[in-house]
Each structure stands twice: as structure tokens, then as C-alpha cells.
Write a structure and sequence with these properties.
Helix content is 45%, strand content 14%. The protein is an alpha/beta fold. It has a single domain, classed as Indigoidine synthase fold. Strands 1, 2, 3, 4, 5, 6, 7, 8, 9 and 10 form a ten-stranded mixed sheet that branches. The longest helix has 26 residues, at 265-290.
Amino acid sequence: MSNRSSHSTVPSNRLALETTILTHGVPRDNALSLAQELAGIAQTNGATPALVGIFRGEPIVGMSDEQLREVLATPNVPKVNTSNLGVLMHRRSHGSTTVATTMELAAAAGVRVFSTGGIGGVHKGYGTHLDISADLIALTRFPVAVVASGVKSILDVVATRELLETLGVPVVGFGCDEFPAFYLRSSGAGVDARFDDAGELARFVGAEMRRTGRGVLVANPIPLADELPAARFGEWLAAAEREAKPGREATPSTLAALHRLSGGATLRANLALIRSNTALGARLAAALATG
């Protein structure tokens, strides 16, 4: 795995950022500028950004703009999950990392904090078919603090929160008492504890990851000004679900329909929360580095 620097010069305040939002979450023409914007937010808040992805089969923690440009110029870049990572490395493919794989590679490189939009979780209809994201299992395997706006609103948010408890994953809220639901600040589910100070949060996260060797989910709600109206979002989601494709295409096809039906409102909300999560993740990484 490449860290783009020797072990002696790797900064301790690195913040992992994923590539999936760049290759699959926004129009390709906007991806490089978004990556640079998020890197700037990380730096402004005291962290060294480390974009995680697969470049010609090599896992990279700290992808360069040149490498990212090549990945973005490649059509149909596959998403990398923990099950196909080895295959894509073997075939020397490019790949964009999901939450679970970003955690795996970040942990291997000694990066302790990762900012994303929202984690995957339990899909609706789990009583009739089993569809649970590998993100939840990754939190039990890798000592990385994941800063996210809860779980994507298109999933079964309450069931996801319950499964996180079953798996023993600590879920702490930053400035909130309730588990957020991506585009929405409230879900009806709670958190294990609330923190309002990044320094105190860093002390807890650092101690907890050393104690357990597992991850911590830091729930950071979407900024109040960017939250979508719950009733309107419900209407968009119901329509999008009627258009959704089955199987692995269910989530991306639902999200694409949501963006279209909402006139881009869900995409704007997505960008707002990833900016907010990047800022908080950077503050946490900086505090962990000095603590």
C-alpha cells in the first residue's frame, strides 16, 4: 500500500476521505474541484487530507490530483468493497473505495479518522431478504473513527441503529442526542453519548479504539440550514423507490432518482453534510494528533 511518504514522515493528523463520492456521487466534471475543496476544508481545520482509492491495482492512502484525474477519466470505475478489493488489486484495476474499504485501508496505514457522508446499513425489507452493508461489520474490525451524518435516509435507519448496538459499535453524537438520518437531522433513534467539545471527543475516541481495537461512529447531523423538509423528502423517496432497480443497483438507482425528482436538492444536501463532516473529522484528527 502506498502512503506517498515514508513512515518517518507520515503525519499523525491525517484524515481519510473516500473516492466513491467523487466517482459515483457527483458529476465527473465537478469531482476534482470537490476533492480539492474537501482537502482545503481538512487543512483549514488542522488535518492532512488523505484521499483513499485504488490506482492501477495499488491501494493508495493519499491519492494525488494526477492519480485522481486518471481515475476520473476512466469510465465505469468499480466500487471497491472488502470482498472484491483483492480481485481488483490482482487485476491492476482502478477502484473507488466505499466506507468499509476506506476504513480497512486507512487502518492499515495508521489513519485513525475518516469522514464520509453517511454509512450503509440495513436495507428495507430485511425480514424477507438479508441485505446489510459491510460498513457495519467494518466498524467491528478496524480502529477508525468514522464521522458521518448517520445512515442514508433511504435505508431502515432504526434497524441499522439497533444492529450497531448488537454489534457493540459505540455511536456518539456530536452536538446531538439523536441518531441522524443523512438528509434529516432526526430519526427517532438515540445515541450512546453526546459530546460537544472536539477535544473531549478525541480523548474518548482515542481511548476507546485503543481499548477495543474497533471503530467508533461519530454522528454529526446535517447542518440545520441544509436539512431537507421531512414530508417533502418522504414524497421524493416514495417515488424514487418505485423506480429503483433490484439487487446491488437498488441504492445507486434510488439515489439517482432522488436527485432528479428533488431537482438536485438531495445532491446539494449531500454536499453540505460531507463538507460539515470533513470539518469535524479534521478537528478530531488534529486533536488526536496532539492528545
